[in-house]
Design goal:
- Two copies of one chain form a homodimer.
- Chain A has helices spanning 11-18, 22-28, 36-44, 62-73, 83-89, 109-115, 130-142, 160-166, 180-190, 227-230, 250-264, and strands at 3-4, 30-34, 49-55, 77-81, 98-103, 120-125, 147-151, 175-178, 193-197, 203-204, 214-219, 235-238.
- With 269 residues, chain A is of the alpha/beta class.
- Chain A has two domains: 3-103, Ribosomal protein L30/S12 (60s Ribosomal Protein L30, Chain: A, 2-Layer Sandwich), CATH 3.30.1330.30; 109-264, Alpha/beta knot, CATH 3.40.1280.10.
- In chain A, the strands form two sheets. Chain A has a seven-stranded parallel sheet with strand order 8-7-6-11-9-12-10, with helices on both faces. In chain A, strands 1-4-3-5-2 form a five-stranded mixed sheet, sandwiched between helices.
- In chain A, α4 links the parallel β3 (49-55) and β4 (77-81).
- In chain A, α3 packs parallel to α4 (62-73) and α7 (130-142) packs parallel to α8 (160-166).
- The longest helix of chain A is centred in the last third of the chain and has 15 residues, at 250-264.
- Chains A and B meet through α7 and α11 of A and α7 and α11 of B.
Amino acid sequence: MIRQIVSQDNQYIKLTASLRQKKYREETGLFVVEGTRFVQEALESSWILEYAVVSEAHEGNERIRGLATNLEKRGCQVLSVPPALYKKISDTEAPQGILAVMQQSRETLEAVAVTANKALWVILDSLQDPGNVGTIIRTADAAGAAGVLLAGECADLYAGKTTRATMGSLFHLPVIKASAPQCLEFCRRLGLSLYVAGAEAKHAYTDVNLTIPCAVVLGNEGAGVGDDFRSQARLHLKIPISGRAESLNVASAAAVILFEAVRQRGLAL
Amino acid sequence: MIRQIVSQDNQYIKLTASLRQKKYREETGLFVVEGTRFVQEALESSWILEYAVVSEAHEGNERIRGLATNLEKRGCQVLSVPPALYKKISDTEAPQGILAVMQQSRETLEAVAVTANKALWVILDSLQDPGNVGTIIRTADAAGAAGVLLAGECADLYAGKTTRATMGSLFHLPVIKASAPQCLEFCRRLGLSLYVAGAEAKHAYTDVNLTIPCAVVLGNEGAGVGDDFRSQARLHLKIPISGRAESLNVASAAAVILFEAVRQRGLAL
């Protein structure tokens, strides 16, 4: 049964609102996904749902009703709140009226190393922009990459801006935070060649063999890839720039390199 | 000489603040560029500078002093304001303390058609996100494209989010607003083949000849490319998706297709 809540002092309401802040996401290990499409993706995933919140203003919506039914079938409590209260906990400008609170992934590098078989990995070194991090996770999924490692001080994976930019791909492939040494050890263990992307690199990305098991490292928007990775690279690769732009946006660069890997691998579907 | 302003009722201050709104940008034909790098790009361009504003808090900064000198050499008045006042007119979270007010481009499709010689164009059909529009302009520049046409209801080119995402590429190649029929007429006149990108297309982008004079059309984030362009396409091309993602972000898709064109054309620099 859907439970009605009207007080902003309710513990669920306070908890949900607090998850907009990284501090509380880290303390609780929880995060919020919002909107019909994203909640649907969450339902289809094996991730653990804690509870969901629906705005009374959207309860008549058929898609939301269907989602609420399926959430309850999965043992996830659905709370109903007045529109004004929903707006207080929502992180979006035009709320669709449904959100779910979920547990963050506990996937570890060790566990993934055992089962990882596909041989295209992406490592992000201290990317600051949540939109870039999320977009690259989406691109990595679309390119059939095995997973994404977040090294250094990347934008928080569980911030709304990041998860929204993944368009649900967050649930499709392992995305794991790790230190640079852990990433390097992971690559050694899986036999992945380390390709570091950078504007001053010697090799055009189209001249590099991207069909072998490899990890492509993309760096911070300003500073590029750090020395930890640079010193261990098998090759440094660049995207030649034809016009007067200094460089590509890092998410665009990731798309170009990952889909060159797909092309070299024969667009295998 | 730098002129000091302390009142928020000053006409320059009020004008600058008003330019955060599209309505006033359209009324005046002006827009704001902000930050040392972007003002430097503006100075190197042939665009018309109206005036610049410097925060007193950054007047000691050598780079800002150098920019102010060069702005004045170009006949552009430099105004100095207290930090609190600067913050009021700034559109960025961590202001670098310098902005310039400029005239929007008056470049027309007709004029460009006469001089256009390079044969890779990008047409954006009703892209909503300013970050996507700006990022694609940057990518088009980096790929050596001849220009970008903004068709339909695209995000405003002169909004801060758009111009920032171009990273200065706005000044490097023609970016022109036009209706769909105008874009189609332009393509006919220049002999450009129209390649429309879409998820349901038949041809993989790698199987399409991107070395001929062509215009790549990318569509709205949700609805894709409109019928005006779809009905006139020489070919519909898609980026095959390997993983479970439904699609790529449109700016990522643009990067993949434009750099495939660069690759096919032999990475000509």
